[in-house]
Amino acid sequence: MGEKKRKEDSESVFVFGKKNYKFMFIGIACIALGFILMAGGGSDDPNVFNPEIFNWRRIRLAPTLILIGFAIQVYAILLNPDKKKS
Fold first, then answer.
1. For a tag on the chain, would you pick the N or C end, based on fewer CB atoms within 10 A?
2. Interatomic CA distance for residues 48 and 28, integer angstroms
3. pLDDT per residue over 18-76, tens digit each?
């Protein structure tokens, strides 16, 4: 009898709502895109310098996308999906 009541009381409830998970996936995609844009640009020969590693995409765009992605993640965690509009 007690076990049945305990199972009824412990329903599986998600911590976040659907809106939170949507923003989390957007943030993860933004972070992944930033790391993909940052990759590459090396040289096959270690004695040859490749100035391609210092281009605008790797120095400015990719880190900015990663920071934006982390900001979206923080927003997704702090978002209250049950907030009623007044």
1. C
2. 35
3. 999 999 999 999 999 999 999 977 777 888 888 888 899 999 999 999 999 999 999 99
d(CA 54, CA 70): 23
pLDDT tens, residue by residue, 9-28? 666 777 888 999 999 999 99
Furthest-apart CA pair in the chain: how many Å?
76
Cβ neighbourhood burial of 48 (10 Å; 0-12, 13-18, 19+): exposed
CA-to-CA separations, 70 to 19, 35, 67, 73, 81, in angstroms, rounded: 17, 12, 5, 5, 19
Identify the domain containing residue 40 by its residue range.
13-78
- The pTM of this model reads 0.77
What total of structural domains would you count in the chain?
1
Asked whether residue 66 is assigned to any structural domain, the reply reads yes
